[in-house]
Design goal:
about 230 residues, alpha+beta, 3-stranded antiparallel β-sheet, 8 helices, 7 strands
């Protein structure tokens, strides 16, 4: 899910904005409310149904995990404590001349993001460490995606570009749709989501959660006619 997809959600975001703002203003996703959440189960191996008071909450596990990853990685980046995971053996990558120039120019920033890479001879480089959240996520592909994203001439040092790269990495590391999670796993994800200032949207603008009230359901089943 590249960052450039953000605009594709604009229309959907407008349609749900009222609902999302209401969720935010009501502060449904809070630790204070946590004990009153009843996790009902997972549907389509992607969405989780949670009952809360007179509402049914529907949580997208990928969007929720992506937001948790993003906030965690941004916090570590700001505090200069990104955690790295060593690769054994290291991943050997061949770079073009242009890619080499970009890499050498921004080695410090790559290091700040949790990448450790060094010359291996000729145009080859050894990727020795990656951000811990990306371990096992096709490290070669993720590194090249970050590197190639710089070839458009954007300044890598700007916070906007850093945020975009971390958003892309957090998406790669997030649990996908059509993946069955256990109840304890989703309970842990929910607990992490509740610690965020804004848990209602992923970094790309998609909602992490939508809601339907009991009254709205009763109207759909014609129990209430108004």
């Amino acid at each position: 899910m590249p960052v450039t997809e953000t605009k594709s959600y604009a229309k959907d975001a407008d349609e749900i904005n009222g609902v999302q703002m209401n969720l935010f203003e009501e502060k449904i996703l809070t630790m204070e409310n946590r004990l009153r959440f009843q996790v009902i189960g997972q549907v389509f191996d992607t969405y989780w149904l949670v009952e809360f008071e007179d509402k049914l909450l529907i949580i997208d596990q990928h969007a929720a995990h992506e937001k948790v990853n993003y906030e965690r990685m941004m916090k570590r980046y700001r505090e200069k404590r990104i955690l790295s995971q060593g690769l054994f053996p290291p991943v050997i990558i061949s770079l073009s001349g242009q890619e080499e120039a970009i890499l050498k120019e921004h080695l410090d920033t790559f290091a700040a993001l949790g990448f450790e890479i060094e010359a291996f001879g000729g145009s080859e480089y050894a990727l020795r460490s990656v951000p811990v959240d990306l371990y096992g996520c096709n490290e070669r592909e993720m590194f090249l995606e970050v590197l190639d994203g710089l070839l458009d001439g954007s300044g890598f040092g700007t916070i906007r570009v850093i945020e975009e790269k971390i958003a892309s990495m957090s998406c790669k590391a997030a649990v996908k749709g059509n993946h069955k999670l256990s109840i304890p796993e989703v309970q842990t994800l929910l607990d992490e989501l509740l610690t965020l200032e804004n848990p209602y949207n992923c970094p790309h603008g998609r909602p992490t959660i939508i809601t339907m009230t009991k009254t709205e359901m009763e109207r759909k089943f014609k129990r209430i006619v108004s």
